[in-house]
Design a protein that fits this description.
The complex is a heterodimer of chains A (282) and B (184). By secondary structure, chain A is of the alpha/beta class. Chain A has two domains: 101 residues, no CATH class; 125 residues, no CATH class. Chain A is built from eight helices and ten strands. A four-stranded mixed beta sheet of chain A has the order 4-2-5-10. In chain A, strands 6-9-7-8 form a four-stranded mixed beta sheet. Chain A has a two-stranded parallel ribbon with strand order 1-3. In chain A, helix 1 packs parallel to helix 4 and helix 2 runs antiparallel to helix 3. Chain B is of the alpha/beta class and 184 residues long. In chain B, helix 4 links the parallel strand 4 and strand 5. Chain B is globular. Classes of the chains: A alpha/beta (282), B alpha/beta (184). At the A-B interface, helix 3 of A face helix 5 and helix 6 of B.
């Protein structure tokens, strides 16, 4: 099999455009989920809030404005075919440069500080948070998910004991959502990771947020658990913006990994109604 | 209740507002979030004046996106308020009365609001494009080095808000959820 060459500058150009589009156009699956929830919402205040949320993403798309002022940290996921040879520059630098240009040329907010304690803004929203997977083939699949921190801050991870079992997992997820309350801009999207190690569990929860909201876990057991948890969350009464109502979450995804005989890690990555994800293949 | 309010937010106006009221705000407000609040409270601790007169002022917890050419401001929705809880009682104690943000507040902030007749308004989180439409002018008045977190003076017209916590300590997050669940 021959090797396909891809110039690093192509990656930069694609990422620049994706950063802007992802921040101005809400994905169709998220729009549909909001619309469906609006139909089912029975709280009067809640319906008004959802109407405003729908107006907002329409204005953003028409007027080419960011949907939310928190244009996030640029989470970039790369699935690189093992038959790809990247030429003309460093892969990571190509990604950072794309983010730098997208956030600068697209008038997006620069929300990244170089150091978590000393907190000086990098001025161009870099570095991107990059995750690389090597896959089969000769293509590069790029997914961009700008992540706001109002919801990110409400995320949590717990290293449960195996004896806690399914009930322990459910309890932790519901507790995390209830504790978050109005803070993560409900209606929220909930990404759950179960299993793996401490770090991979958190990554699984993040990956769960990348899935289209109308998709289900391929394992029927977890697909059912997704439905059950989403219903339980929507019985909490938190509602859009926390003002009370049915629509507390518009989606919940679970990603599962093998884990150690001694462990049952569970991570909950919270996201908001402006859950952005955009994928392109080079 | 739907109310149209013209700023500044006097004690009399503040006391007339109740959790759950839909409010349309018109007038001058100031923007500040984490880094700006830290700097303002440090200035006050040194006995210095703030870059604006805090008496009856309303502070919007927001870090907008940069304005595109020809526009007043970029997207400008609220940020999560609890991160300003450490500073809000100090701001209330020097006269700042209104706060606009989203999300829960601490007991300390609510006690300070009751003491100083403060009001906490909720704007719709994540509705930055919609909220930008009611901002008619924007200028940086200080802390320019903080970028999105710079201290801005905004003029807003009919900014759509909800009273989340009133000056009596009544809280819409508790009340709204309770009433929704009771009505089921």
């Amino acid at each position: 099999m021959s090797v396909r060459e891809i110039n690093a500058s192509v990656i930069t150009d694609v990422i620049e455009g994706m950063c802007i589009t992802a921040n101005e156009q809400l994905p169709e699956d998220v729009k549909c989920a909001i619309a469906e929830c609006y139909e089912r919402e029975d709280g009067a205040v809640a319906r008004t809030v959802l109407e405003n949320i729908i107006d907002n993403y329409k204005i953003a798309e028409t007027e080419k404005m960011p949907i939310c002022q928190d244009t996030g940290m640029a989470c970039v996921f790369l699935e690189i075919g093992q038959d790809v040879h990247i030429t003309g520059g460093d892969l990571y630098e190509a990604v950072h440069e794309g983010v730098r240009r997208g956030y600068t040329n697209g008038y997006l907010r620069k929300s990244v500080v170089r150091d978590p304690i000393n907190r000086v803004n990098t001025g161009d929203n870099t570095p991107a948070m990059i995750t690389v997977d090597i896959t089969a083939g000769d293509r590069i699949k790029i997914t961009i998910a700008p992540k706001g921190f109002g919801s990110e801050n409400m995320s949590a991870i717990k290293m449960l004991a195996p004896s806690a079992g399914l009930d322990g997992v459910k309890k932790f997820i519901l507790e995390t959502v209830e504790k978050a309350g109005p803070n993560p801009c409900p209606p929220m999207v909930v990404g759950v990771g179960i299993g793996g190690t401490f770090d991979k569990c958190a990554l699984a929860a993040k990956r769960a947020l990348l899935r289209p909201l109308d998709s289900a876990n391929p394992d029927p057991f977890y697909a059912e658990l997704e439905t059950e948890l989403l219903e339980k969350i929507n019985s909490l009464g938190i509602g859009p913006q926390g003002f009370g109502g049915r629509t507390t979450a518009i989606g919940l995804g679970i990603e599962v990994m093998p884990t150690h005989i001694a462990g049952l890690p569970c991570a909950v990555n919270m996201s908001c109604h402006v859950t952005r994800h955009l994928t392109e293949v080079i | 209740m739907e109310k149209h309010i013209t700023l500044p937010l006097t004690e009399e106006i503040a006391k007339s507002l109740h959790a759950g009221d839909n409010v349309y705000l018109t007038g001058v407000i100031y923007t500040s979030r984490d880094a700006g609040h830290k700097r303002m409270c440090e200035a006050l601790a040194r006995g210095e004046k703030l870059p604006f007169d805090p008496q009856d002022a309303t502070i919007y917890y927001v870090g907008p996106t940069p304005a595109k050419p020809g526009r007043v401001i970029g997207s400008a929705g609220p940020t999560t308020s609890y991160r300003m809880d450490a500073y809000a009682p100090t701001m209330l104690s020097v006269g700042a009365r209104g706060m606009i943000g989203k999300g829960a507040r601490s007991k300390e902030v609510i006690e300070a609001m009751k003491k100083h007749s403060g009001v906490y308004f909720g704007a719709i989180g994540g509705a930055g494009a919609l909220l930008a439409k009611c901002i008619k002018s924007a200028e940086i008045i200080d802390y320019e080095d903080l970028g999105a977190e710079a201290l801005r003076k905004l003029y807003v017209e009919d900014m759509p808000l909800v009273v989340v916590i009133d000056s009596y300590g009544e809280n819409l997050y508790e009340k709204g959820r309770r009433e929704y669940l009771e009505g089921k």
